[in-house]
Each structure stands twice: as C-alpha cells, then as structure tokens.
Input
Amino acid sequence: MRRLQKKEIIILASAAAVIIAAVVTGVVLITGRRSQPKEPRVVTLTIDAPANIPLEQKEDIVYRTLIKAGYSPAGACGIMGNIAVESPDFDPAAVNELAGTLGLFQWNDVGERKAHFKEFCRQQKVNWNSMDAQIAFAIYELSGADPIACRLDDFLKETDNAYAAAAEFTAGFERCVSDSGKAKDVYMGSIYPEFYGNHYQKLSARINKAMNYYERFKDVDIADDAQINITIE
Output
C-alpha cells in the first residue's frame, strides 16, 4: 500500500475539517429552528364528566381529549405516562405544598409557569383545578406558549413510539431533573440534545406507564365521541 505524502495528508485533514464543520453547523441550525417559539393555539375545551369518577374513567377521558387535540396514540400515552407519575390519581386539584406544585402536570414557579397557568385560567374564565383548564393550558404551552415545550408538539402528533414520547415529554415539558444517579432514569433522547445524559425523576416509571397505556388505548376508536368538545384556534 502506498504511503501518503505530507501534502496529501494535509489536504485530507482539511477536507475532514470542512465536513465536520458543515455537520456541526447543520446540527446548530436544526437545533435553532426547533427552539424557535411557534404561535400558540388557544384551546376551548369542555369535558362532560363529573369530577368524582374512577381513575380508569379519568385516564380514558384524558386519552380521548389528547387524541381529539391532534396527538397520536403514542404521543398521548407519552403525556399520560408523565401525568401518572406527577398526579397518580389524575387529580387536577392535586397540590404539593412543600414543592409548590399543582395540577395534573404539577406546574411550579420555575420560569413562572404556574403563574402563567393561573393567568391563562383567569383570561379564559375557567377554574384552575379543572381537567379542562389544565389540558387546555398544556396544549397551549406545547403549541407555542412555552419555547422549550413547543419543540415537542409536532413529534407528539406524529410519533408511534410511546417510549420516546414519554422520555421526550419528561425532558422538555416536565423538566424534573434529578440527582439520583440511577442509570435507568437517564435521558438519551434527540429532541433536547442539551439535556442529553441528565437524570430525571422516575423517568423509567413514566416510560413504563406510557407503554402500558399504549397497549391499552392504541386501538380505541373515538370518532363519535360526544363527551369531549374541543376547539383550537
């Protein structure tokens, strides 16, 4: 085999540097596009169901609502896997006084998201502790009101992977970073490369619950569902 000359090595090294630079630039551009906020969708949502119903009925209602909002079965189940950890009883009135969090998604004061949620409810003239209001606000954040969460929106509408949906939602929407150090709770997704390798609270449990929901709900037909009325502007 012929040994490369010094000039050839320099040329090859320069070419490799150009390729690497192009790839890195492409990644930066793609990441930048993903991080750009979209115009949020204002949701008017009415769920015709009493407050005190069994857990399975609550889960069923949340699933059908998310499907009507445009999310895929896997995407909806990824969201639900997170709700099941944040509020195991799917109780929109759940409040953690110690952590200062509330609702199905346990919004907190980081980034003033809890304050934004309360203001959303005030403007929409709805009670904050209702399932209707909280799902509507989650869709509002996902659709563009929150510059981080909105990077999930298209993915959650298109994906057929409940595992990935749960993991991406944990990192991008819940953002429940943990210092537990458990390998099974490490984020290894692709939508949030800046969070890659972070540990998240009960990530594996969120994923398992999402996959169980997917097996349960993936073939449910909601075409004639009159219990949920949803308008997205």
User: Anything to note?
Assistant: The first strand starts at residue 43 and ends at 47. Confidence is low (pLDDT under 50) at residues 6-35. The longest helix spans residues 6-35.
